[in-house]
């Protein structure tokens, strides 16, 4: 898993560093074996996407343009593998199964064609174009048709190339929400591309690295009102495991790509710390395919409402070049992201939710929990009766497995919310209700 900062491989100099988050899972270049496929112009802002590597466990889903390298010389093909060979028995079994399937298919078709005196018409009358293109509004195709105009592909110049990510329009005057790591390191200007290929300029209004949220403002001059279509917000607190979801973005620069899945876990504590900035949130976990370039893109519910922002993926790979989606993607809940984005638009900075404690990061216990290293005098935790040395076991019923889970789960809530915590003092378990506040930053 990665923190929110974008992974960028420098064109020269020292390679970018990545910092993982311990034992927990974290986030291939497209084939070029078809030289006849048209390639984008070298100066196209999205042309880099076809050569970008996949995400790694320590990189968010953002595409970064790399300087072109000279093609390596062709090498001799490797000698035949000395590994285990497929046995003749397996080949025979596969051949037999294939023959049986083919025989069954042939027999069935023979029966169909023989029926009715040897004259058979397959299918009915072709559907007209209008009827063929109709889809129920509550189908996936109907949902995509409704929301696609609100999703944009974002391109920004960074020190070592171009960073490519996704975003979505949230207001009629052109505000767009994306991940901070998509625009991090930019000059503050960006280019957005709509699903109908319309391109417009945008500026970065502000961002919060610790929440991995950024807000852009599209220059709407010259754009028709119908071009800027805000999304509908859902309620991420109402999401349940098993709910169907749709992710839309630009994985590997493939704009307006749609993937489908379900919510597989809720309030999964995520911590990433690449680039020196620690980011925490309680994520919506999904099996919808999310890859490099999906960063900042929306996760929709079955009604076409945004419930999350796709940000990081889990992977079994140990390096960036071989990492790819394995059905574990994580989105920032929209209730959290919307609150942060509103703060950025209204005040220029975001409020972070705290409970007035410092956790002991060295504490390790197979049973989990976060031990409180300090409890601030007069803070929310002290007012609730918590003391230094207490071990917090859960927040509103969500178990704490690692010490930093406490920070991630607390930030899920807004300042002023009250949460129930179960904690351990010595050998005795107890409960406390803590009213959270905004930090002083």
Automatic annotation (TrEMBL):
<dbReference type="InterPro" id="IPR043504">
    <property type="entry name" value="Peptidase_S1_PA_chymotrypsin"/>
</dbReference>
<dbReference type="InterPro" id="IPR001478">
    <property type="entry name" value="PDZ"/>
</dbReference>
<dbReference type="InterPro" id="IPR009003">
    <property type="entry name" value="Peptidase_S1_PA"/>
</dbReference>
<keyword id="KW-0378">Hydrolase</keyword>
<keyword id="KW-0812">Transmembrane</keyword>
<keyword id="KW-0645">Protease</keyword>
<dbReference type="GO" id="GO:0006508">
    <property type="term" value="P:proteolysis"/>
</dbReference>
<feature type="transmembrane region" description="Helical">
    <location>
        <begin position="86"/>
        <end position="113"/>
    </location>
</feature>
<feature type="domain" description="PDZ">
    <location>
        <begin position="344"/>
        <end position="401"/>
    </location>
</feature>
<dbReference type="GO" id="GO:0008233">
    <property type="term" value="F:peptidase activity"/>
</dbReference>
<dbReference type="InterPro" id="IPR051201">
    <property type="entry name" value="Chloro_Bact_Ser_Proteases"/>
</dbReference>
<protein>
    <submittedName>
        <fullName>S1C family serine protease</fullName>
        <ecNumber>3.4.21.-</ecNumber>
    </submittedName>
</protein>
<dbReference type="InterPro" id="IPR001940">
    <property type="entry name" value="Peptidase_S1C"/>
</dbReference>
<dbReference type="InterPro" id="IPR036034">
    <property type="entry name" value="PDZ_sf"/>
</dbReference>
<dbReference type="Pfam" id="PF13365">
    <property type="entry name" value="Trypsin_2"/>
</dbReference>
<keyword id="KW-1133">Transmembrane helix</keyword>
<keyword id="KW-0472">Membrane</keyword>
<dbReference type="Pfam" id="PF13180">
    <property type="entry name" value="PDZ_2"/>
</dbReference>
<feature type="region of interest" description="Disordered">
    <location>
        <begin position="1"/>
        <end position="53"/>
    </location>
</feature>
<feature type="compositionally biased region" description="Low complexity">
    <location>
        <begin position="25"/>
        <end position="42"/>
    </location>
</feature>
<comment type="similarity">
    <text>Belongs to the peptidase S1C family.</text>
</comment>
């Amino acid at each position: 898993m990665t923190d929110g900062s974008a992974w960028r491989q420098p064109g020269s100099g020292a390679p970018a560093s990545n910092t993982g988050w311990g034992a927990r899972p974290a986030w291939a270049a497209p084939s070029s074996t078809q030289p006849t496929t048209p390639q984008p112009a070298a100066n196209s802002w999205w042309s880099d996407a076809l050569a970008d590597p996949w995400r790694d466990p320590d990189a968010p889903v953002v595409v970064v343009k790399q300087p072109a390298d000279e093609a390596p010389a062709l090498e001799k093909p490797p000698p035949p593998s000395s590994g285990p060979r497929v046995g003749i028995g397996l080949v025979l079994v596969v051949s037999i199964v294939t023959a049986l399937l083919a025989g069954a298919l042939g027999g069935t078709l023979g029966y169909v064609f023989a029926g009715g005196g040897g004259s058979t018409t397959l299918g009915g009358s072709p559907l007209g174009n209008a009827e063929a293109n109709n889809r129920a509004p509550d189908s996936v195709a109907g949902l995509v048709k409704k929301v696609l105009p609100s999703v944009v592909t974002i391109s920004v110049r960074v020190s070592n190339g171009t960073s490519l990510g996704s975003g979505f329009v949230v207001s009629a005057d052109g505000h767009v929400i994306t991940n901070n790591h998509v625009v991090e390191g930019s000059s503050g200007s960006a280019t957005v591309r709509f699903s109908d290929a319309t391109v417009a300029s945008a500026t970065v209004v502000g961002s919060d690295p610790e929440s991995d949220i950024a807000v852009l403002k599209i220059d709407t001059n010259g754009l028709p009102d119908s071009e800027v279509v805000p999304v509908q917000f859902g309620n991420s607190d109402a999401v349940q495991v098993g709910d169907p979801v749709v992710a839309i973005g630009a994985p590997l620069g493939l704009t307006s790509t749609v993937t489908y899945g379900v919510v597989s876990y809720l309030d999964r504590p995520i911590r990433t710390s690449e680039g020196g900035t620690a980011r925490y949130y309680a994520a919506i976990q999904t099996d919808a395919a999310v890859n490099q370039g999906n960063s900042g893109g929306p996760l929709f519910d079955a009604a076409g409402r945004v419930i999350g922002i796709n940000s990081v993926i889990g992977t079994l790979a140990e390096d960036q070049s071989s990492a790819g989606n394995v059905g574990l993607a994580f989105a920032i809940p929209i209730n959290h992201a919307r609150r942060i984005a509103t703060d950025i638009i209204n005040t220029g900075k975001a409020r972070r939710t705290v409970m007035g404690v410092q956790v002991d990061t060295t504490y390790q216990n197979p049973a989990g929990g976060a031990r409180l290293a300090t409890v601030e005098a007069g803070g929310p935790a002290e007012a609730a009766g918590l003391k230094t040395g207490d071990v917090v076991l859960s927040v509103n019923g969500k178990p704490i497995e690692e010490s930093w889970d406490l920070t991630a789960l607390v930030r899920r809530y807004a300042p002023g919310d009250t949460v129930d915590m179960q904690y351990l003092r010595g050998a005795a378990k107890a409960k406390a209700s803590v009213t959270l506040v905004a930090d002083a930053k």
